[in-house]
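Researcher: I'd like a candidate sequence for this fold, 720 residues long. If you have to choose between options at a position, lean toward the conservative one.
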């Protein structure tokens, strides 16, 4: 009789910073009902991975689930897999951190479940060739990754019924290929479909092995799966069918397969992840071209034959595609390096706390974007920054420099230019002289809050689908079509609200703060908001010269200057801008003095604007709003659009996070406010997401030689 060894595994994860109700919903829809049904069938042996984040949450809220898991482990029904505790992409964090994170989850599993994990789950199945060294050092014998990785190395389906050995500098690990076929049939097709496939690949010997390993959320959280898997009974039907055929289907744990089955061969895999992830990593233009090429190959009926040679991008390119991802990543590297230099092999409660916060900020979800990636979700980015800032405060305390003011010149974000990192007891101010002399990050330390946590509006490869739907709707309306063709497009492009294409605006610069604009006389707030205007000046994102001064009382003064031009009627008008940022050494106040200077003998009429962007996470929450000492603001929510005429003050309040931002100008200005909102694609379809609130102080200037203005920004607790 032909036989097959079958390893069935699930991976369960929720991101650091995800809402409590999301954890709870996933627990009741997937994690708990799945385990309940598995426990009913003691002969159904499976491999399970929970991230440390999720295990901690479950132990706190539903400890019986952990006790249930322990029973199944002790009974030999469940094999636990380890991994990075906070689910990092191991290849983009320091090896010491990766090893530490894996050991932390090993320790948790051993202490709570009395089990010593031998293998691990690899976050997002992102593979790079040096990973065996990290895994081996952490005590891991095996991992599981997509069969596509093996096919990129030239192997075919019939060569993937088993596992392989790989190594890095003499550090070996065993790698099991996950069957793409099974990933697409389980649980979306009838249980019999999986059985038929297992029968097809079964062989005469006892060494054939096929692997299913995928997200546990597929069993209840993904759209329509709870009803299918539990209400309609798919999971029980599947388990019963597998067990009824146990005379030729042998359920195995990965460690058992590694012990009893010989490896097929040695292999070296290229850098890769699952196919969708590599598609998402491509820049917008290449993203669409990749889709078009795939469609062409399918049209030519050759895709199945050549698809293994069709690959997208590389995971690390998310940090090139999205500077916001790079900003978080390089802050993490900066703090990780600082912690290693400070600790130098010593350990203590505070040093462990700092390191753990750095590790928590390495959770991968906020660093990338696809259907499931969370870069577009401000609360996930905030959670990473919150952990980083807390770690930074601990590191300063341990170093004895928590009350000092430090100015560090370094290329911390690895863009080829030096940045200025100003660290005070209350604030971090990261300045980028080469990019408009802007503030790229403003951390309010008492609240563990990066106030500039925003995302720039940029074109995504999938945005064209929204535009195609709009065109199809208009054509159907003109032709009197009953809409069937449009409906089919709607089936492919679900949206959480109508007419989202009207919000597709793309910024020409990153949405940071202290951005210097010169606008034409006809530019309106709507033009500016929609990025449908032309700058008269060449100051936004252009190089400024920086000079740093530090006074005896600890205050810091940074002068940023640029000799640029205005362009009017194709004539360049020389103009100098100098902005001097004074940073209080004790508090959380910035004073910004601007000077505009021209050598022209004639008066030059200008509309000069200073733009700031604040990411306070909720545009329409009642506890986050604008206020002004000059007059009432209505509506006051942070997603509102409006102008304060001849005003000197605007504030933003966040009662939830207990902070208040006050901005004053010594001269009256038009103060513009509007939301930065992005359109992204999630598993539920297209959605509009509030990213930040843009504020601009706009001055009407008659420049005759020099013109000066002083602005002040102060961040305080909402309630003392």
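Model: Candidate sequence:
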């Amino acid at each position: 009789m032909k036989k097959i060894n079958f390893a069935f595994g699930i991976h369960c994860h929720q991101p650091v910073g995800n809402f409590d109700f999301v954890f709870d919903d996933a627990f009741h829809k997937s994690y708990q009902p799945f385990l309940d049904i598995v426990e009913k069938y003691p002969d159904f042996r499976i491999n399970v991975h929970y991230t440390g984040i999720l295990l901690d949450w479950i132990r706190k809220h539903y400890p019986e689930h952990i006790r249930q898991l322990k029973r199944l482990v002790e009974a030999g029904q469940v094999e636990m897999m380890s991994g990075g505790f906070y689910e990092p992409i191991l290849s983009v964090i320091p090896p010491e951190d990766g090893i530490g994170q894996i050991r932390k989850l090993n320790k948790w599993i051993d202490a709570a479940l009395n089990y010593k994990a031998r293998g691990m789950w690899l976050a997002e199945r992102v593979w790079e060739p040096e990973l065996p060294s990290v895994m081996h050092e952490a005590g891991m014998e095996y991992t599981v990754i997509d069969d596509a990785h093996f096919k990129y190395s030239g192997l075919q389906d019939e060569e993937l019924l088993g596992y392989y050995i790989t190594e890095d500098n003499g550090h070996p690990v065993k790698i099991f290929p996950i069957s793409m076929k099974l990933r697409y049939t389980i649980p979306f097709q009838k249980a019999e479909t999986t059985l038929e496939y297992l029968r097809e690949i079964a062989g005469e010997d006892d060494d054939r092995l096929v692997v299913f390993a995928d997200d546990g959320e597929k069993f209840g959280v993904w759209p329509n799966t709870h009803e299918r898997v539990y209400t309609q009974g798919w999971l029980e039907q599947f388990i019963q069918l597998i067990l009824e055929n146990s005379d030729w289907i042998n359920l195995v744990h990965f460690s058992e397969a590694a012990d009893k089955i010989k490896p097929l061969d040695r292999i070296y895999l290229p850098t890769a992840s699952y196919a969708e992830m590599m598609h998402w990593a491509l820049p917008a233009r290449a993203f669409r071209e990749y889709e078009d090429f795939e469609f062409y190959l399918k049209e030519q009926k050759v895709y199945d034959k050549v698809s293994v040679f069709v690959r997208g991008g590389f995971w690390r390119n998310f940090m090139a595609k999205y500077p916001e991802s790079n900003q978080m990543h390089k802050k993490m590297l900066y703090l990780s390096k600082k912690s290693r230099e400070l600790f130098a092999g010593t350990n203590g409660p505070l040093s462990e706390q700092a390191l753990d916060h750095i590790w928590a900020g390495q959770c991968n979800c906020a660093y990338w974007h696809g259907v499931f990636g969370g870069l577009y979700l401000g609360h996930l980015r905030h959670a990473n920054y919150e952990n980083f800032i807390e770690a930074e405060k601990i590191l300063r305390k341990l170093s004895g420099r928590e009350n000092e003011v430090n100015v560090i010149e370094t290329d911390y974000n690895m863009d080829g230019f030096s940045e200025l990192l100003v660290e005070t007891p209350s604030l971090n101010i990261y300045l980028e002289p080469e990019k408009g002399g802007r503030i790229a990050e403003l951390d309010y330390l008492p609240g563990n809050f990066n106030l500039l946590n925003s995302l720039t509006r940029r074109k995504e490869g999938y945005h064209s689908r929204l535009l195609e739907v709009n065109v199809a709707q208009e054509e159907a309306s003109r032709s009197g079509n009953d809409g069937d063709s449009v409906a089919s497009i709607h089936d492919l492009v679900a949206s959480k609200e109508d007419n989202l294409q009207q919000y597709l605006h793309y910024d020409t610069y990153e949405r940071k703060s202290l951005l210097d604009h010169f606008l034409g006389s006809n530019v309106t707030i709507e033009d500016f908001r929609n990025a449908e205007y032309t700058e008269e000046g060449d100051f936004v994102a252009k190089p400024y010269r920086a000079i740093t001064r530090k006074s005896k009382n600890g205050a810091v003064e940074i002068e940023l200057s640029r000799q640029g031009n205005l362009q009017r009627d194709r004539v360049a008008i020389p103009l100098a801008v100098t902005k001097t940022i004074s940073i209080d050494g004790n508090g959380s106040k910035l004073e910004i003095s601007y000077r505009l200077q021209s050598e022209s003998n004639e008066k030059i009429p200008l509309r000069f604007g200073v733009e700031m962007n604040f990411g306070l996470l909720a545009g329409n929450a009642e506890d986050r709003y604008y206020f002004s000492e000059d007059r009432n603001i209505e509506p006051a929510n942070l997603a509102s659009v409006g102008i304060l005429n001849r005003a000197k003050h605007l504030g933003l309040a966040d009662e939830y996070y207990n902070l208040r931002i006050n901005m004053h100008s010594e001269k009256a200005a038009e103060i513009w406010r509007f939301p930065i909102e992005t359109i992204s694609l999630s598993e539920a379809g297209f959605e509009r997401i509030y990213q930040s609130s843009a504020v601009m102080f706009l001055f009407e200037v008659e420049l005759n030689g020099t013109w000066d203005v002083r602005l002040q920004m102060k961040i305080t607790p909402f309630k003392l």
